[in-house]
Write a structure and sequence with these properties.
Growth Hormone, Chain: A, mainly alpha, single chain, 19 helices, 83% helix
Length: 406
C-alpha cells in the first residue's frame, strides 16, 4: 500500500487521528522555537555571549536531526503511530529536565535530549499520512496536518518572549511538559482505535541497526532523493540561520521588548495558516515547481525587508509573508520526500527531516558566530539570498525531473 490507495476500500481511520498528530506537531514546534526569543535573557542569566547561548537551539537541532536516522526504521518496525505516542511521553520528561536544569551546561544536555525525543513526531506523522492517504490527495492533507506545527512555531516564540520579559525562562518548559502529557494520552487512545492497515502498513521485521543502514543506503541510491535531501539541508541552514535571530534583531536594532518582537515573529505562523487554508487552490494553480519558485522569492523579499528596513513595523508584513513563502517551498519539498522512496517511506521521510534539522543546526551555529562580526542585518540578508538560490535551483531541477518522468 505504498500510495495509500488500498486505504480507500479498507475501514476508515478515526476522523480526529490526523488532527491528533497535528497536536503533537504543535508540541514539537513549541519545543524547537521557544528558545529563540529567550536568547538575550539566557545570555544575561548565565553570563555568556549571544553566540554561545545560541547553542541551546543548535543542540536541539543536531539531536533532532541525527535521531531521525533511528526513528524512521523504528517506526516501520513497531508502527509509526505507536512510536509517535511513546515519543510524546519522552518529550514530557525531557521538557521537565530543561525546566529543572541548574546550570547552562546541564540545560544544553537537556535540550539535546529534548531534540532527540521530539525527533519522532513530525517525520513519522508525515510518513504515516503517506501510508494511508493517496498521493493525489496528500499535499493538502499534509498542509492541514502542518497547521499544528505552524501554530506551535508562533506559540513557542510568543511563550519564550513573554517568559523573557515577565517570568522565569523555566516557565515555558513546565508548560511544554504538561502539554506533552495530554497529547500522549490522546494519541494512545487513537492508536487503540486504528484499523489494522493503519497499524501495520510497511511494518518491517528484523534487527533494527542492519536494516536501518540498508534502508538509508537504498534511499540515498536514488538520484532524486539525493537532490531533495541536499535541497532541504540548504533550505534549513539559510532560512533558520536568519529566522532564529529575527526577534533578537528587532530587540537590539529597534529597541522593542522581546515580547513585542516575539509577537511580530508570530505572524510567520499566520502566513503559514494562510498557505494551509489555500493549499488546494495554490497546488492546483501553481504546481510543485511554481510553489517552490514563488515560495523562495517571497521568503527572500520578506527577509530583506525585515533585515534592512529602517523601522520595526516593516516586520509586520515581512514576518507574515515569510511564513507564507516558507510553507509554499517546504511543503513542496515534503510531498517529494513522501514519494522519493515509497517502499522505504519511513526511512526516506526521516532522512528528509534529519537533513532539514542538521541544516538548521549548521545555519544557526554559523549565524551565531557571524553576528559578532557582521551584525544581525547582514546575517538575515545572507539567509534571504541563500533561500532564493536554493528555491530557484530546486524549481529548475523539479522541472527537469518531471520532464524526464513524463
Amino acid at each position: 500500500m505504498s500510495d495509500g490507495s488500498s486505504a480507500q476500500s479498507a475501514p476508515s481511520i478515526p476522523a480526529l487521528a490526523i488532527p491528533a498528530l497535528s497536536l503533537a506537531a504543535f508540541g514539537s514546534a513549541i519545543s524547537l522555537r521557544v528558545t529563540d526569543p529567550l536568547l538575550p535573557r539566557l545570555a544575561q542569566e548565565f553570563g555568556i555571549s549571544l553566540g554561545n547561548v545560541s547553542y541551546v537551539i543548535t543542540a536541539f537541532s543536531i539531536a533532532y536531526g541525527i535521531s531521525q536516522l533511528f526513528f524512521g526504521p523504528v517506526g516501520d518496525r513497531f508502527g509509526k503511530y505507536f512510536v509517535i505516542s511513546c515519543a510524546c511521553v519522552a518529550c514530557a520528561l525531557t521538557a521537565l529536565l530543561c525546566a529543572l536544569a541548574p546550570s547552562y551546561p546541564l540545560l544544553l544536555v537537556a535540550r539535546l535530549l529534548a531534540g532527540a525525543t521530539a525527533a519522532a513526531i513530525i517525520p513519522l506523522s508525515m510518513a504515516w499520512i503517506g501510508d494511508v492517504v493517496p498521493y493525489d490527495e496528500r499535499q493538502p492533507v499534509l498542509a492541514q496536518f502542518l497547521i499544528g506545527q505552524i501554530v506551535g512555531i508562533s506559540a513557542g516564540v510568543l511563550l519564550g518572549g513573554l517568559a523573557a520579559d515577565y517570568f522565569s525562562w523555566r516557565v515555558p518548559f513546565f508548560g511544554i511538559s504538561l502539554c506533552f502529557v495530554l497529547i500522549s494520552l490522546t494519541l494512545f487512545s487513537f492508536n487503540r482505535r486504528l484499523p489494522a492497515y493503519a497499524l501495520t502498513t510497511h511494518k518491517a521485521e528484523g534487527a533494527v541497526v542492519p536494516r536501518m543502514i540498508n534502508e538509508f543506503r537504498q534511499v540515498l541510491s536514488k538520484p532524486w532523493a539525493r537532490i531533495v535531501l541536499i535541497t532541504v539541508f540548504l533550505e534549513g541552514g539559510f532560512l533558520y540561520g536568519a529566522f532564529a535571530f529575527i526577534a533578537t534583531h528587532l530587540h537590539h536594532k529597534h529597541q522593542i521588548s522581546l515580547t513585542n518582537a516575539a509577537s511580530l515573529v508570530m505572524l510567520f505562523g499566520l502566513g503559514g495558516l494562510l498557505y494551509a487554508s489555500t493549499s488546494r487552490k495554490l497546488v492546483r494553480n501553481l504546481g510543485e515547481k511554481g510553489l517552490a519558485l514563488w515560495g523562495g522569492i517571497i521568503i527572500a523579499a520578506s527577509f530583506l525587508t525585515i533585515g534592512l528596513a529602517p523601522s520595526w513595523w516593516w516586520a509586520i508584513p515581512g514576518c507574515f509573508a515569510a511564513g507564507l513563502g516558507f510553507y509554499m517551498l517546504h511543503n513542496t519539498l515534503q510531498i517529494n520526500a513522501t514519494q522519493m522512496a515509497p517502499e522505504r517511506r519511513g526511512a526516506a521521510v526521516s532522512a528528509f527531516a534529519s537533513f532539514f534539522y542538521l541544516g538548521q543546526s549548521v545555519g544557526v551555529g554559523a549565524a551565531g558566530l557571524g553576528i559578532a562580526y557582521l551584525g544581525t542585518s547582514v546575517v538575515i540578508t545572507i539567509g534571504a539570498i541563500g533561500v532564493l538560490l536554493v528555491a530557484l535551483n530546486f524549481s529548475r531541477l523539479k522541472s527537469a525531473h518531471m520532464t524526464g518522468n513524463s
